[in-house]
Design goal:
One of its GO terms (cellular component) is side of membrane. Keywords: Cell membrane, Glycoprotein, GPI-anchor, Lipoprotein, Membrane, Proteoglycan, Repeat, Signal, Transmembrane, Transmembrane helix. InterPro entries: FAS1_dom_sf, FAS1_domain, Plant_FLA. It contains 19 helices and 14 strands. It is α+β, with helices and mostly antiparallel strands. The protein folds into two domains: about 180 residues, FAS1 domain (Roll), CATH 2.30.180.10; about 170 residues, FAS1 domain, CATH 2.30.180. The chain has a seven-stranded mixed beta sheet with strand order 2-1-7-6-5-4-3, with no helix packed on it. Strands 9-8-14-13-12-11-10 form a seven-stranded mixed beta sheet. It binds 2-acetamido-2-deoxy-beta-D-glucopyranose (5 copies). One 2-acetamido-2-deoxy-beta-D-glucopyranose binds next to loops.
């Protein structure tokens, strides 16, 4: 990526600069090459703008859209079961390649949900294609990024689909993997909300090599302890083992389990109460507070509005977590403290493991307000604060965007063939300088004004 840190520098922007850089990395996958055509000065602004639009105001609901078409009921049902529907609803400028019940039954018959999820994620293209644009693909063929690419499970270009304008007015779809054939064709348009979401039907599933034959990682086989240790959560893992909670997790993993594992730095952070003072039962509750008894991948967390029960919940409103979303960042609130969801360690239906930056402290154990624990007062520290006590140099795991959020850039180098071209009506002769920004001009400019005012407001609140 080019350096995004130059260009527009206002007070409002400088305050959120770090966040912008992260957003910048992430949004690249949403908008792909569309953004590469912006001028450098504009990129800074647009990255922020587009990312906020993409996440905060998507207004469509794929489940509702498809519910009007009984021929896609199986496809619709699997979008819900795999939670891909949530991911679709948080994104804009996407195309869903729907399969009818006959095509779906061939796909779902003999595969576990985790495999079906990967297969279906390849049917969500991160670009807007309606019938007209499909027939206007520059040079007649393109590789387009899909949701599968964003999972981090897709090696090489397995996460891309090849869309090719074939002779005789047909449009072919296939895996972008070398040697793949275009086995599927455009059938018809189902529903368009320009340029937010387009749903079109294709004739057959697009199957990337190896996706269906990959050994389905069984949740009961996953060694949660080993995964946590590898992800930098050794303290959490050892507490799970010493208390026996790991057995509870391992049993729950088959039916649906989501873990929020604090990394090792989180346990050393100033302000964490002395956990050795907890009784055994309290420690068990604390550990179970870091788990949900359902498969809740990142896209689902982003759409969560109500308080969620944890494994420790034992009554109405007890040991609940609440979730807030800002842009592409999800924050969990315990009632005492809060923590960013940092990294996705595993997302394999029905088991999800995330790392979090802080130990989540339930009010049931630690009181309603932050306990008078030793605060990280720089004043009281006579020597220059060592790295350990300073939260700012975030650990590698916390700093890196989750793999699901940050797929590699598309393999294509030519801007002409880039997946994200202007929508339908865009003429081929537009200059690269401003063609992309002009396509969505009315919507974008309106949104920029809204977004900038929101950001200014936020910056005032923060300051
Ligand atoms: C399309 O998405 C934008 C946000 O990106 C939203 O404001 C707008 O209402 C959506 N349009 C429709 C027709 O849903
Ligand atoms: C898409 O697939 C067709 C047929 O295999 C191939 O000729 C074409 O080059 C591919 N398109 C891209 C952009 O790789
Ligand atoms: C899981 O991994 C841990 C640590 O890597 C190891 O000690 C343990 O034996 C493993 N458990 C199983 C069932 O393989
Ligand atoms: C682009 O091409 C269209 C016809 O396809 C023409 O009307 C228009 O003037 C051209 N624009 C530029 C900037 O060359
Ligand atoms: C690109 O922008 C310049 C200046 O804003 C404008 O004069 C020109 O017509 C634009 N070109 C196209 C193709 O929109």
């Amino acid at each position: 990526m080019p350096n995004m840190g130059m260009g527009v520098e206002t007070e409002a922007f400088s305050e959120v600069e770090d966040e912008e850089e992260e957003l910048g990395n992430r949004i690249t996958c949403v908008c792909g090459c569309l953004l590469l055509t912006f001028t450098m000065g504009a990129v800074h602004l647009f990255l922020v703008t587009v990312s906020l639009i993409a996440i905060s105001t998507a207004a469509h609901n794929i489940t509702d859209i498809l519910s009007g078409f009984p021929e896609y009921s199986l496809f619709n049902s699997y979008l819900t079961q795999t939670r891909l529907a949530d991911e679709i609803n948080t994104r804009t400028t996407i195309t869903v390649l729907a399969l009818d019940n006959a095509a779906m039954s061939a796909l779902v018959g003999k595969h576990p949900l985790s495999v079906i999820k990967n297969a279906l994620a390849l049917h969500v293209v991160l670009d807007y294609y309606d019938g007209q644009k499909l027939h206007q693909i520059s040079k007649g063929t393109t590789l387009s990024t899909t949701l599968y690419q964003t999972t981090g499970h897709a090696p090489g270009n397995l996460g891309f689909v090849n869309i090719t304008d074939l002779r005789g007015g047909k449009v072919g779809f296939g895996s972008a993997a070398p040697g793949s054939t275009l086995d599927s064709t455009y059938t018809k348009s189902v529903k368009q909300i320009p340029y937010n979401i387009s749903v079109i039907q294709i004739s057959a599933p697009i199957i990337a090599p190896g996706v269906l034959t990959a050994p389905a990682p069984s949740a009961s086989d996953a060694n949660i302890t080993a995964l946590l240790e590898k992800a930098g959560c050794k303290t959490f893992a050892s507490l799970l083992v010493s208390t026996g909670v790991i057995k509870v997790y391992q049993t729950a993993a088959d039916k649906g389990l989501t873990l929020f594992a604090p990394n090792d730095e989180a346990f050393k952070a100033p302000g964490v109460p002395d956990l050795s003072k907890l009784t055994n039962a309290e420690m068990v509750s604390l550990l179970q507070f870091h788990a949900l008894t359902s498969y809740t991948p990142f896209g689902t967390l982003k759409t969560t509005k109500d308080a969620i029960n944890t494994l420790a919940s034992n009554g109405a409103g007890k040991f609940d977590l609440t979730v807030t979303t800002a842009g592409d960042e999800v924050t969990l609130h315990s009632g005492v403290d809060s923590s960013r969801v940092a990294e996705t360690v595993l997302d394999s239906t029905p088991l999800c493991i995330f790392t979090v930056d802080n130990v989540l402290l339930p009010p049931e154990l630690f009181g309603k307000s932050p306990s008078p624990a030793p605060a990280p007062e720089p004043v009281t520290s006579p020597s220059p604060a060592p790295a350990v006590t300073s939260p700012s140099p975030a650990p590698e795991s916390a700093k890196a965007p989750a793999p699901i959020l940050s797929p590699p850039a598309p393999p294509m180098s030519s801007p002409d063939g880039a997946p994200a071209e202007g929508p339908t009506a865009e003429s081929e002769n537009s200059t690269s300088d401003n063609s992309s920004s002009s396509v969505q001009a009315p919507a974008l400019f309106k949104a920029i004004i809204i977004t900038v005012s929101v950001m200014v407001t936020v910056s005032f609140l923060l300051s």
